[in-house]
Amino acid sequence: MIVLALVAAACTAEPRPQLPGSLEVIGHEPLFDRGMNAGLALWGDFAYVGSRTDGSAGHLRPGVLVVDVEDRADPHVVGEIGPPHQGGPGETSRELRVWPGRGMLVVLSFACESFLHACAPEPAPSTFRFYDIAGAHAALPRFVSAYEPPGQPHEFYLWQDPTDPHRALLFVSTPAPVGENLLVVDVSGAPGGEFREIATWSAAFPDPGLDDALHSLSVSANGRRAYLAHLTAGFLILDTSEVAREADRPTIRAVTPLEQRARWPGWGRTAPSRFRDETSCSRPTRSTVVRRGAGARGAGPASSTWPGRPPRR
């Protein structure tokens, strides 16, 4: 883990112009040289780092690592959210977010691939896990509850209501060739293990591409607009105001006419075809109510600490 800056040169056949400003590495934590690191979330003097691979044989420290970053020049691992909650065989802790109003860490885990990520070919349900990281639990996260969505998620945006910090929604991308690509879940009841699936959205594009699945999204601070990036279908904006204001049976509508959405050809700069004529390329290494509480996994502390360097309180 590099504090403040991680720079990877983009693949290009032309020299880049010199730009003003600079970035400087001021601290480094190798994270056991485990590689395959994934999502990052920050809370106070702590950083939480997910894993792109799983807990199968030979993968050391495959859970969510807890890093003390109070001293920016000397970040160091103080704990790990490991089994049974994270770091199991066949499962990656891919995306992490912090819910400030509740002092909670949200970790999205799902099945990972054996070819791309060296994961064990074992089934792993897609799961959002919620951890208490308030106060002393920042260094020793405590498992609170878990939610299993009905579809396969890929990324998510956690929106906290600016008028009520205890109310939060997950906007989840569920990439699929057909059907809903966006799921909205009210997770305000997460401390008690209660989750409500309140809205979905999908689009039938008039000019379908090779893969029009929704990949990433973000939401405006007031929750009234969602910004969607599809793999080959481009970029568009949605009206999510009914979801934000807690309307009964909220409807999500497109603000951008589908035929006028922003589009560009191809798969982008990472497409193999773009490397064909390039000689240099630097890449970085590698409203249903559902009650799902602690269940069989139980509640309580979910991480272990390292001896010799006690976490700062």
List the helices and strands and how they pair.
Elements: E1 37-43, E2 46-51, E3 64-68, E4 76-81, E5 91-99, E6 104-111, H1 114-117, E7 127-132, E8 142-147, E9 155-160, E10 168-173, E11 182-186, E12 194-201, E13 214-219, E14 225-230, E15 234-239, H2 241-244, E16 253-254, E17 288-291, E18 300-301, E19 303-305
Describe the protein:
This protein has two helices and 19 strands. By secondary structure, it is an all-beta fold. The protein has a single domain, classed as Neuraminidase. Strand 5 and strand 6 (104-111) form a beta hairpin. The model is unreliable at 4-12, 268-289, 291-299 and 303-313 (pLDDT under 50).
Labels describing this entry:
single chain; 313 residues; mainly beta; Neuraminidase; 5-stranded antiparallel beta sheet; disordered C terminus
Number of domains: 1
**Would you state the CATH class?**
Mainly Beta
In what order do the strands lie side by side in the largest sheet? 1-2-3-4-19
Tell me the span between the first and last alpha carbons: 21 Å
Runs with pLDDT <50, length 5+?
A: 4-12, 268-289, 291-299, 303-313
Strand content: 25-35%
Mean of the pLDDT scores? 82
Order of helices and strands: EEEEEEHEEEEEEEEEHEEEE
Q: What's the architecture, going by CATH?
A: 6 Propeller
Given helix and strand content, the structural type is mainly beta
Q: How would a crystallographer describe the biggest sheet?
A: 5 strands, antiparallel
Percent in helix: under 10%
Oligomeric state of shown chains:
single chain
> How does the overall form come out from the CA principal axes?
globular
Number of strands: 19
